[in-house]
């Protein structure tokens, strides 16, 4: 490139730069351009919202007829007025005997009359509220289509029913129909708080129901409690046309066990007879109950017993998961001194058990999960029953407990207590534990009992 060419390029660049600088818009012009851009964007958003409302506003005659038939089919009828009511998620709808749809649809911006949505009357209603109301109505009707008779129980107010005896107290929640909290009345944690073995913030269980088209988790539904005196309650779902499904709980006058039974009527209308199993899911985040965390971790694990009597457990010191493809008689979440246990009347046919060690959590030591399957029939009034145990790992208690739960079958529940190798287990079982139990009947101080037991062993060895 020669000198003249280079000079020419520099002059051209200077001319272009000077032209751009001379034609640069002023600050006033830049502000005006920004204002025009903002107005255009606002107009675009308004047009999009208007288009959305216009799209959602159109409720055809066929859609209206579907909403009316849905309310009539899955709603609750008033025998005096002949009107129907249906609550499903955000929609609280009514249907008069003449076929007029009423009620309201909840939104984050306030309720909107269902009649206005059906008739597309939105005078005075902000577009955003109108769009949300139409969307919530459609989603609520989609939920009814999916859950059918269960849909009315998707929304409700959670409350609890308390069953208590001198040893254990249970709170049973209407949300999911399950035991939400269980604590022992005569024990405390290391920090002097109630010794809680189930807590609604971290623990829970549910059943998976399989209909002709869906799999439904019972924890999604709000049950209706039906009290049966002070010691029993049934959490019930009335599904219409005589179909009912519920969980009945009974707490004895004393002890650490509670009974749970599935109760149902005319469920063949909802669950086909071809469905021969039901799934049970149980999750627990195991609380720390002792000051000495390391030793408590070493003595905490998920245990389970096979139908043949063999008892196994997941690792105490690490995270572990197992798929058990044979019958299981019971599953237990056991910590150093206390256990949460479930024993079905029959067996779990298969199970997936999982235990995760929580090293960095100061308040919890392990997180345990069970996904189990058991036999089920929609034609039987009580297709499955279970016994829960929430209590201390005391050898005499666990030894007697298996006779109360399942007489004639050895449940090997004492395997929850680590007694060492075979030889030491015999010594502990035949000598140490009976002497300890005997002295405990007269002395309440465990330190003194251990001292006397030590002297007793030394005398025998001498």
List keywords for this structure.
six-stranded antiparallel sheet; 462 residues; single chain; nine-stranded antiparallel sheet; alpha+beta; 24 strands
Tell me the total number of β-strands.
24
The percentage of residues in β strands lies in 25-35%
Radius of gyration: 33 Å
- Find the structural class using helix and strand composition: alpha+beta
Task: Report the helical percentage.
Answer: 25-40%
Largest sheet: 9 strands, antiparallel
Average of pLDDT: 85
Would you identify the regions where 5 or more consecutive residues have pLDDT less than 50? 47-56
Overall form: extended
**For the largest beta sheet, what order do the strands appear in spatially?**
12-13-14-15-24-21-20-17-18
Ends: how far apart? Answer: 112 Å
Oligomer: single chain
What's a quick, concise take on this entry?
31% of the residues lie in helices and 33% in strands.
What does this structure look like?
- There is one protein chain.
- This protein is an alpha+beta fold and about 450 residues long.
- The protein contains 9 helices and 24 strands.
- The chain has helices spanning about 5-20, 25-55, 60-75, 115-120, 125-145, 295-300, 395-405, 420-440, 445-460; strands spanning about 75, 85-90, 90-95, 100-105, 110-115, 160-165, 170-175, 180-190, 195-200, 205-210, 215, 225, 230-240, 245-250, 255-265, 275-285, 300-305, 310-315, 320-325, 330-335, 340-345, 350-355, 365-375, 385-390.
- The strands form 4 sheets. Strands 12-13-14-15-24-21-20-17-18 form a 9-stranded antiparallel sheet, with no helix packed on it. A 6-stranded antiparallel sheet has the order 11-10-16-23-22-19. The protein has a 5-stranded antiparallel sheet with strand order 1-2-3-4-5.
- Strand 8 (about 180-190) and strand 9 form a beta hairpin.
- Helix 8 packs across helix 9.
- Residues about 45-55 have low confidence and may be disordered.
């Amino acid at each position: 490139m020669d000198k003249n060419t280079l000079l020419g390029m520099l002059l051209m660049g200077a001319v272009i730069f000077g032209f751009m600088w001379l034609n640069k818009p002023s600050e006033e012009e830049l502000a005006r351009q920004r204002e025009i851009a903002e107005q255009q964007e606002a107009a675009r958003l308004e047009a999009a919202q208007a288009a959305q409302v216009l799209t959602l506003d159109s409720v055809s005659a066929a859609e209206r007829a579907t909403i009316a038939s849905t309310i009539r089919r899955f709603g609750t009828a008033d025998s005096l007025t002949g009107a129907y009511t249906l609550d499903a998620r955000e929609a609280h709808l009514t249907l008069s005997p003449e076929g007029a749809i009423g009620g309201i649809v909840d939104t984050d911006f306030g309720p909107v009359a269902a009649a206005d949505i059906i008739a597309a009357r939105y005078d005075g209603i902000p577009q955003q509220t109108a769009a949300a109301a139409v969307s919530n109505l459609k989603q609520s009707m989609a939920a009814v289509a999916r859950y059918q008779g269960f849909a009315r129980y998707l929304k409700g107010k959670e409350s609890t029913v308390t069953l208590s005896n001198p040893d254990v107290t249970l709170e049973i929640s209407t949300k999911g129909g399950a035991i939400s909290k269980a604590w022992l009345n005569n024990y405390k944690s290391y920090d002097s708080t109630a010794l809680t073995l189930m807590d609604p913030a971290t623990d829970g269980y549910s059943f998976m129901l399989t209909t002709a088209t869906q799999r439904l988790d019972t924890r999604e539904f709000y049950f209706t409690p039906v009290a049966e005196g002070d010691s029993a309650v049934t959490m019930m779902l009335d599904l219409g046309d005589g179909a009912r499904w519920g969980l009945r709980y009974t707490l004895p006058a004393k002890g650490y066990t509670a009974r749970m039974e599935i109760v149902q009527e005319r469920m063949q209308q909802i669950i086909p007879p071809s469905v021969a199993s039901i799934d049970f899911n149980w999750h627990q985040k195991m609380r720390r109950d002792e000051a000495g965390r390391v030793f408590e971790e070493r003595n905490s694990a998920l245990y389970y017993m096979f139908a043949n009597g063999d008892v196994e457990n997941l690792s105490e010191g690490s995270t572990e998961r197992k798929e058990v493809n044979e019958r299981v008689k019971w599953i237990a979440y056991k910590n150093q001194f206390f256990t949460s246990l479930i024993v079905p009347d029959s067996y779990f046919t298969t199970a997936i058990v999982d235990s995760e060690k929580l090293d960095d959590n100061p308040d919890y030591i392990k997180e345990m999960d069970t996904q189990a399957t058991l036999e089920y029939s929609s034609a039987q009034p009580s297709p499955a029953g279970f016994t829960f145990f929430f209590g201390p790992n005391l050898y005499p208690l666990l030894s007697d407990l298996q006779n109360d739960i399942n007489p004639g079958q050895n449940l090997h529940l004492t395997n929850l207590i680590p007694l060492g190798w075979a030889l030491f287990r015999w010594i502990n079982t035949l000598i140490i534990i009976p002497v300890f139990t005997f002295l405990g009947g007269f002395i309440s101080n465990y330190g003194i009992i251990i001292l006397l037991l030590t002297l007793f062993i030394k005398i025998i060895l001498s």
